[in-house]
Amino acid sequence: MNKFEITNLDLYYGQLQALKDVELKIAERQITAFIGPSGCGKSTLLRTLNRMNDLVEGCRITGKVMLDGQDIYNGNLDTTMLRKRVGMVFQKPNPFPMTVYDNVAYGPRTHGVRGKAKLDDIVEQSLRDAAIWEELKDRLRKNALGLSGGQQQRLCIARALAVEPEVVLMDEPTSALDPISTSRIEDLCVTLRAKYTIIIVTHNMQQAARISDNTAFFLLGEIIEYGNTEKLFSNPRDKRTEDYITGRFG
Amino acid sequence: MRNTFEEQLRLLNQELLEMGALIEHAIQSASEALIKQDVESANSAITFDHEVDQKERDIESLCLKLLLQQQPVARDLRLISAALKMITDMERIGDQAADISGIVIYLAGKPYIKSLEHLPQMAEASIRMVSGSIDAFINKDLALARDIIAMDDVIDDLFDTIKGELITLIQTDPENGEQAIDLLMIAKYFERIGDHAQNIAEWAEFSITGVHKGTEL
Q: Between residues 38 and 57 of chain B, which touch chain A (CB distance below 8 Å)?
């Protein structure tokens, strides 16, 4: 079952074509990794999946991005609802300057959830799902900016999960974290796969190999190779993939 | 790019070539010892085996270091994992050359009950297979790897021929049964060397194609 089906997608920033004729099917409840050198279009494609590029001036998109069979660029889809279904976690942890509790409750409140008991439940469940409840259950009223980088990033994941998304987009979520925090987030991704479709952009080849089911290799705005992660990292079809992942260029 | 890594991979190839040369010498010495009933050559094959064991440990450490430091993927991962598997077979070949030499030393001074005929052919074929399988790996020569894999049948056929002859010999002359069994064991060791060389060629094929014995790993 495919969560996203992308066909014939071109994306321009002004005159610059950042994505060229992208064709990609992203499987539901699997982890898909986007890899490639800086500027290859992987983060651009990620942001296309919840229309974050709409905020970029001069950005023009043609082609289709189907989410559960519905084109997210053509029709009546409300972007707020889209971003509720397709959440995002960024490279640098970006908690709001408020308490741990309010960070997680922010999304549900925005979507109209009221009532302390209901919000308490959502906050606890989201923090549990993000594998950080035990560490933070006694600090819910503390300011989130006082947490360590790894805790902040898991809090951001909890905040993304609080609105019950179907897809979680992660843009280099561990590049600013130490190895222990990184492995916690990686374990978390593998656990979350049971409930969510996860798409992760990473510069860490080993991370892509460790946690993803499928990997897409991007170069100069094109998808050069896409397929089973183990296959791609042990015996890639395309020489350009081989040269990039073995560190011969890029 | 990745100059250190390239240098380490060259070193790995060099070490494998050296280990290959050692086992070829070991089989050659065992074979000469057998043909000429020469204890000195037999002893030298046994000495080679100690060097082979040391080389195996050196290459093993180098491969583990490469896995740790370089975290290889794709063709690099296949090359290093194939090397790790190959050296086990190469080490066993060294053992078998020493085992043949042990029997030759035991038989020294006793006339052979039959002309050796097929055993030297087995020795020659096994050396060709060993050197060919390692060359196929080093030079990424897929055609050669496949030729070597096919060559194992030649050695197997020679073994069957020798076995048949020795069975007949035991039936007609039970007195010489012990030496017949010794010669059969030598033939079996050569046959096993062929099997190990075939394994090496299969890992060479995997290193080049990512397919091992018809299965993509």
A: none
Query: What is the model's pTM?
Result: 0.86
Alpha-helical segments (H) within chain A: 42-48, 79-85, 100-110, 116-129, 133-136, 149-161, 179-192, 205-211, 229-234, 239-245
Indicate the CATH number of A29-55+78-245 among 3.40.440.10, 2.40.160.180, 3.40.50.300, 3.30.70.360.
3.40.50.300
- What chain B holds in terms of domains, given with CATH numbers, is 3-216 (1.20.58.220)
Contacts of B216 in chain A (CB under 8 A): 231, 235
**Residue A162 identity (one-letter amino acid):** A
Q: Is A10 exposed, middle or buried (0-12, 13-18, 19+ CB in 10 A)?
A: middle
What is the residue extent of each domain of chain A?
29-55+78-245
Tokens at A185, concatenated: 């987030």
Angle between helices B177-209 and B142-172 (to 10 degrees): 170
| pLDDT tens profile A106-121 | 999 999 999 999 999 9
ipTM given for this complex: 0.77
